[in-house]
Every structure is written in structure tokens, then in C-alpha cells.
Design a protein that fits this description.
Layout (H helix, E strand, L loop, with lengths): L1 E4 L3 E6 L2 E8 L2 E2 L5 E3 L1 H9 L4 E2 H12 L3 H17 L3 E4 L2
Antiparallel strand pairs: 1-6, 1-7, 2-3, 3-4, 3-5
Length: 93
């Protein structure tokens, strides 16, 4: 499965956090704002092009120098949450 940022989501920085804001028409849906920490931001940025979970894990390992198991758990949890909220699109590899 590949993951990609949903085209109706705008990312904005607020201090140390990255906010994901769904936009419908010309209006931001402020009830659905989602906040990302540094790990979540790295995951989000990796989704600019379609990527697999394995590719996201590789990027997290390189960026944060964490074990593969930690990166995989964090990435899978974040991607599941983003997917459930409609902030990312999924498709077949």
C-alpha cells in the first residue's frame, strides 16, 4: 500500500508544531485541525509523493537514528490515524 498527502489538506507551522487543516471549498475546517510533532511532521513530509510504509520507516530511521522497530510502530500508528481522519490517501503499490 502507498500513502500520499490528501490534496484538500493544507499544512501550516505554528511554533514547534505543524498543523494539518482540511479545506472544503475555500474554507478551512477548523474543527478538524490535526497537530503533528517532529516525528509526525517527518512522516507528513515524506508523503509528498506516494510512499510505502517501508519507505517512511527508512526515512524515520535516518532522520531520528531510532531502531527500525520503533520507527515502524510510530509510522504505522501515525499513518493509521492520518488515514482514519481522511488526511492521507492510500492506494495499491
Amino acid at each position: 500500500m502507498k500513502y500520499l498527502q490528501a490534496p484538500h489538506v493544507v499544512a501550516r507551522r505554528l511554533g514547534q508544531e505543524l498543523l494539518l487543516v482540511p479545506v472544503k471549498g475555500n474554507l478551512a475546517d477548523m474543527r478538524q485541525v490535526f497537530t503533528l510533532n517532529a516525528t509526525g511532521e517527518a512522516i507528513w513530509q515524506s508523503l509528498a509523493l506516494p510512499v510505502t510504509l517501508d519507505q517512511v520507516v527508512e526515512r524515520l530511521c535516518a532522520a531520528f537514528h531510532v531502531p527500525e522497530s520503533t520507527a515502524r510502530l510510530d509510522a504505522a500508528e501515525c499513518l493509521a490515524d492520518l488515514s482514519a481522519r481522511g488526511l492521507v490517501e492510500t492506494g495499491s503499490a
